[in-house]
Structure formats: C-alpha cells, structure tokens
Amino acid sequence: MGTPEQRSANYRYNRAQRALLPAYTLKWLGIAVSMLMLLQIYSGMLAQAMEGTAAYFCAALFCVSSGIAFSFACVVIAILLACYLFFTHIKD
After folding, report:
1. Could you tell me the pTM of the whole model?
2. Residue 56: which of 38, 43, 69 has the closest Cα?
C-alpha cells in the first residue's frame, strides 16, 4: 500500500503513462479478432470432420482453445479501457 505520499506519486506516474494504454488496447483488439477468425476456421473444420476421428478431436481442441483465448482478450480489453477512462477522468 505505502504512505499517502507514495500512493499519490504512484497515481501521478500511472496517470502520466496512460497515453500508452490505447496502443495496448489496439494490440489486444487485434489478438481478439485473430482468435475469432481462428474460431471460425476451426468451427468449419469441426463441422466437416467425422465425429470420433483424430481430426475431429484436434479441431475441437483448437476450437475451444481459440474461444478461451478470445474471451481472455476481451477481458483484457475491458480492463485496459477501464484503466484508461479512470486515469483520464479521475483527478488526484
């Protein structure tokens, strides 16, 4: 936690660094879009594969992994946007 002076200094530093957050948000947005595109590709492979085969299980594994990665990227984007809005609109 620190003393009130340390906390205030940390907040001022974080507020000064908020200009970096939109770039990171765009990076994570690109990751989310990529994962969504992979999810569509693997869903198509899953629909074409015969159930019970190795190709079906691989496509299912990749499809689930892409979906989880997409969800994680969306959470990171939400956190980055919340931090940016907080540091932009809340004064020390």
Report:
1. 0.86
2. 43
The 10s digit of each residue's pLDDT in 26-38 is: 999 999 999 999 9
Structure tokens at 36: 């969504």
Q: Tell me the C-alpha distance between 6 and 3, whole Å.
A: 5
Q: Which domain holds residue 64?
A: 4-89
How many domains does one find in the chain?
1
Enumerate residues 6+ apart whose C-beta is below 8 A from 74.
Answer: 32
Note the pLDDT tens digit of each residue in 40-59.
999 999 999 898 899 999 99
**Contacts of the segment 29-37: beta carbons below 8 A, 24+ positions apart:** 29/73, 29/77, 31/69, 31/73, 32/70, 32/73, 32/74, 32/77, 35/66, 35/67, 35/69, 35/70, 35/73, 36/66, 36/70
Q: Which tokens in the block code for residue 46?
A: 């899953």
